[in-house]
Each structure stands twice: as structure tokens, then as C-alpha cells.
């Protein structure tokens, strides 16, 4: 179940061809492959990498595996090039998320990217201790990592809660992930049997972003089950 969540989640999170982060999020929420592809082609640096990241997940969900793989590789290449030129906590966090997806797509890459992911997140935390996207990616990583290896659901909840608090800080440019942090915390609660708490978090995600498709899907899915 957790593997499926990773493949589907980070996407279910207008527009000129030159996108900002909110444009990319809006296209991802509606699974708009055409817009995400345009944003990737016409953007540079972080925005291009972020567009490719969201495009990779969206393409995978609708079964376009080659596009997903290509987009993920493009995001990785862009971010690695950027970090060779300039250190940035946001770029480190996004690259860690990309590495995590690479592992999810092909678990034989775990040995190659697992250590790199941990190093990137540690460096990002040292560079910007109050960056919420760093703690969000750390929470996602903890969600999929057994507690015996330093992860676990309790740690995922703690890190997601830290991210949620940090999202209250002012943000001007790179601002994605607020609703996502609530959604991941809700997933950790669900895995631990706290469905009421999970649904409260998913509703909080929709209060932040009413168009956030993933939280809406999770709430509707529970409503149907009940």
C-alpha cells in the first residue's frame, strides 16, 4: 500500500507557458499532462525541475511509464546541475524527493540513492533549519522507512507536524507543500489506526487548497467505505 501511495500521492496536489510553482501545482492537481509538459519545456532551473517532478508522477499514474521515467531523469539532471553551481536547501530537498521516487520506481536503486537522500536532507536541514519542504520530504522518507532504519510512522508524524508549523512562516517564491504536509500526516495517522485524526488532517489540507485533488480523493474514498 505504501508503494502505491508514493506513486500516486505527490501528484494529487491557467496558465502561461512560463510557470511559477502555483501554476505547476494547479496543473498537477488536474493531472494535466499537456500543461506540465509545457511548463517543463519553457521553464528553467528549479521551476523546470519541479514541473518535471510533478510530470513524472502524473505520467506514472496514467500509465505513461516512459514519460514518467524520462521526466524524473530530467528533474534529477537539472537539480544535480544546479547544486553543482549553487547550494540550496530547496534544491537539495527536491532532489531528495526525486531520488526517493527513483527508488520507488526501481528498488534496485536503493543502494545508490538511499544514502544520497539522507545526506541531502541532512545538508538541507543544516542550511535552512526552518524550511518546511525539507521536513516534508523527511516526513515522506520516514513514512517509507522502517523504524529500525531510522524512520517509522511516529517520526513521519513528528516531521510533518514540524513542517506544518514552519509553513506559517512567510514565503515568497518556492512555497509548495503546505496541504501535502497535512495529507502525509493524515496518512501516518491512518496507518496507525487513527482514521478520525487522518480525516481531520485531510480536511485541513483542503481548507488550505480546495483544489488539492489527493486529499479530496482520500476523504471521498473514506466516505464511500463508511
From TrEMBL:
Where would I find the TPR repeats?
179-212
The protein's UniProt keywords, in alphabetical order, are:
Signal, TPR repeat
The keyword Cytoplasm is annotated on this UniProt entry = no
Query: Transmembrane stretches, by residue range?
Result: none
Q: Which residues form the signal peptide?
A: 1-19
The organism sits in which domain of life?
Bacteria
> Cross-referenced InterPro entries, in alphabetical order?
TPR-like_helical_dom_sf, TPR_rpt
Q: What is this protein called?
A: Uncharacterized protein
User: Which species is the source of this protein?
Assistant: Shewanella polaris
